[in-house]
Amino acid sequence: MSNQHTLMLFNLLPVGTNISTWWNFGSMLLTCLTLQITTGFFLAIHYTADTNLAFSSTIHITRDIPYGWIMQNTHAIGASLFFICIYIHIARGLYYGSYLNKNVWLSGTILLMTLMATAFFGYVLPWGQMSFWAATVITNLLTSVPYLGTTLTTWLWGGFSINNPTLTRFFALHFILPFMIISMSSIHIMLLHTEGSSNPLGTNSDIDKIPFHPYHSHKDIMMLTIMITLLLTIMSFSPNIFNDPENFSKANPLVTPQHIKPEWYFLFAYGILRSIPNKLGGTLALILSVTILLSMPFTHTSYLRSSTFRPLMQIMFWTLTTTFILITWTATKPVEPPFIMIGQITSTLYFLFFITNPFLGWLENQITNPC
């Protein structure tokens, strides 16, 4: 009876026969989330949310707690692997037209914004030099909001500067938001199984589906094995590869780092922010750099779903990918020529992809079906 129930469960998850390895990143993200929550809980029971003790408590976890260095490094490196998988997952959705599963795409984009907020709050918690100043720069953007900016900033800080109340707020939010992420991930998965997965050809998979197990579960196991191996390799041989050297010093409000920048997975948004000289304009562009993903299901005009058969869309997609990498690289450089101009050009190209999407679809329709 047990085997029958198991077989029925897997048959409830039919998927297309032709989905590729790019579809395995969803299960990898679920594994990353489980890993982050598990290690995060361990770190939370040893962490002290106090400006005088936060930095030393982080060192205490790494040096004095048995296996604390494993939990600390797994959590820090796991965050970077999490975002690598997220960006690949989104890129696959853009390339193969997965955004036409409207409810799945919209819930995933909202989930992305929640994850980015959670990661930002977590980055501040070690109370290192770069953490403090990155938080100062980003939270100061709220002051650009007309009329309410100063009030919102004071409320978020818990005072008139970033201090103990701010750290307590960020720790509380970083601890609470993962529970929201679990709920939102559950909704995202339920919507996925309701609407079904897309496939590389962009065709309807209903006519040719197979059980998830064993045909695709084995692919998941292989990709998860590769990811865990990569995590353990980085943790063992180069655990600080994603860390900024400035963050190994305790936060000092009186000493400003030469070049303030957030973690690498926020650099594309930060690069767009600093490419606009107007503070309010830069803030709006930063927010729009992520929320513009919500527009994709509504701006698709092509008769074809997947970019597999859309050569013009392929050119635009790889231009977007190159632009994303260039913005990230530019954001690590000082705000001076020629990096200012490069940032402005790449930021324009980034938004141009989303703006031209409906016109590109219409043009392709005219080429393939001029009548």
UniProtKB/TrEMBL annotation:
Location in the cell: Mitochondrion inner membrane
Domain of life: Eukaryota
Residues involved in heme b b562 binding: H75, H174
PROSITE patterns in the cross-refs: CYTB_CTER, CYTB_NTER
Pfam families: Cytochrom_B_C, Cytochrome_B
Topology within the bilayer: Multi-pass membrane protein
Domain Cytochrome b/b6 C-terminal region profile residues, every copy: 202-371
SUPFAM superfamilies with a match to the protein in the record: a domain/subunit of cytochrome bc1 complex (Ubiquinol-cytochrome c reductase) (SSF81648), Transmembrane di-heme cytochromes (SSF81342)
GO molecular function, one term: metal ion binding
Transmembrane spans: 21-49, 69-91, 103-125, 131-158, 170-191, 221-242, 280-300, 312-332, 339-360
Residue span, Cytochrome b/b6 N-terminal region profile domain: 1-201
Protein family per UniProt: Belongs to the cytochrome b family.
Assembly behavior: The cytochrome bc1 complex contains 3 respiratory subunits (MT-CYB, CYC1 and UQCRFS1), 2 core proteins (UQCRC1 and UQCRC2) and probably 6 low-molecular weight proteins.
Protein task: Component of the ubiquinol-cytochrome c reductase complex (complex III or cytochrome b-c1 complex) that is part of the mitochondrial respiratory chain. The b-c1 complex mediates electron transfer from ubiquinol to cytochrome c. Contributes to the generation of a proton gradient across the mitochondrial membrane that is then used for ATP synthesis.
Protein name: Cytochrome b
Organism: Mopanveldophis zebrinus
Upper taxonomic lineage: Eukaryota, Metazoa, Chordata, Craniata, Vertebrata
